[in-house]
Amino acid sequence: MENTYRDEYILAYDLGSTGLKSAIFDVFGEVVASKYETYETYYLRPTWIEQNPEEWWSALCNTTITLLKETNISPERIKAIVPVGHQIGAVPVNQEGNLLRKRAPLWCDARNSKQARELIKKIGGYPNFYRIHGLGHPPEILSICKAMWLKENEPDNYAQTYKFLQSKDFIILYLTDKSVFIDDYGDASNTGWLDIKKREYSDELLEAAGLSRDKLPDLRESHEVVGYLGKDAAKQTGLKVETPIVLGSGDVPAGFVGGGIIEERMNYCSIGSANWTGSYANKPCLDPDIRMINGCHPWKGYTSFSYTAAGGVSQDWFEDTICDVDKKVAEQIDIASYDVTQIKAMRAPVGSAGLFYFPYLRGGGGPHWNPNSKGAFVGLTFLHKKEHLARAVLEGVALNFRWLMDQTERAGIPIIKENGIRAIGGGAKNRAWLQIYADVLGMKVLPLKSPHEVTSRGGFISAAVALNWYRDYPDAVEKVVKIDKIIEADMDNNKIYNDSYPIFKSIYESLAPMFDNIATFQEKYSTTQVE
Question: Which domains, and CATH codes, for the chain?
Fold first, then answer.
């Protein structure tokens, strides 16, 4: 790599579900500086969950201005801008690039059950529906069903819609002064309107949904320059006019790239608010009983993954509810809150003395795809203390991840234990939790350096390839993605988890029939919240 690149940078934007991070990367893929700003999520009804895209843009402008000021990096040295963002959206904009709704449905918005049922019936049943798009998500959250809802409930807005955009596409629209309407294959493959095998929009699905193909943006590769920074956007961000804009992708495909998952037999574990298992695949896995989620990889081939909606957020819940006093004390003495859980958990024995935690605080997700699943502690006795609960939370998420991994293998995607599994996400900073993962899985865990920057680093790699800083994705990954200290499995602990794992599975299977009744009861009686 030429030394002339050393003073050049790429600015990556990561639009998360709760806030936006702006990060400046140097040519070696290291974060020079980053800034984060939250935005509000609007819970209008239990299943109606929205955000205001204008607030995404405001967070982008604010963090960019602050970054440039604090780093004193000249805008001329920013050689490309690339966004990644949360997926499964449907932001409606008109031909002038203006929003048609003040707020857009977030990925987890599930108001579209009626539309999902109608679409599945028209397409000939769920197996046929799934085999076209390859998405194991609950059908009601898919972008195609969101667009159907808009057409049925807000026909004027639908009629005025020029394009439905994903979150990062909306950012590109604003960066280019509302002149570029575009999407990439990775983002589009997580919407429900793409034929996953053909890698093109599905006329069959769109016709059944009653949607116009003209309302979908053109598709390009993630590492393509698709536009340049406009004059208005430059004024609002402090960046240089005509800075190249690289397309980027959704947060999940970007996470694959940033995690170095670019060839077969590579797997990763993401411990974010949700808990993901991801694998590279040469072809989609389209077994409707297993319901893997298949997408287009930004490099080549496919991403195949499954998730539980409550992973790291289980630890957050535990700290906020069970350890709220401990958390306040930790904040006063400047200790990270996750250290509180870690310290307590390590005082309890392996297996938590027979206490099991089920991480279904958010229903749905794998391996069961049951939206009525609930979180639970099972096996409590007078012997159990807060330390046992802390360890059970960490073990329960890891045991459920093992279940996801078993399903991945059953789907025909190889898990090579000798290769280990890469770990990304904020939870990968918790060494004690990673040790539990290694022991539960019986395989080494390979945490990446700066695991919480993996998604934006995936965006950086796409932009660096676009600028020819690297020959291709494998070249960039080899030089940019670094493994931290490897965590080996304790096989004595693994024997204990091998005994607990079948009990964990059988408890869920016993509880599953009760969850529908619990959900009905909660819907009826949980409207009053604790102040």
Answer: 3-254 (3.30.420.40), 312-416+499-525 (3.30.420.40)
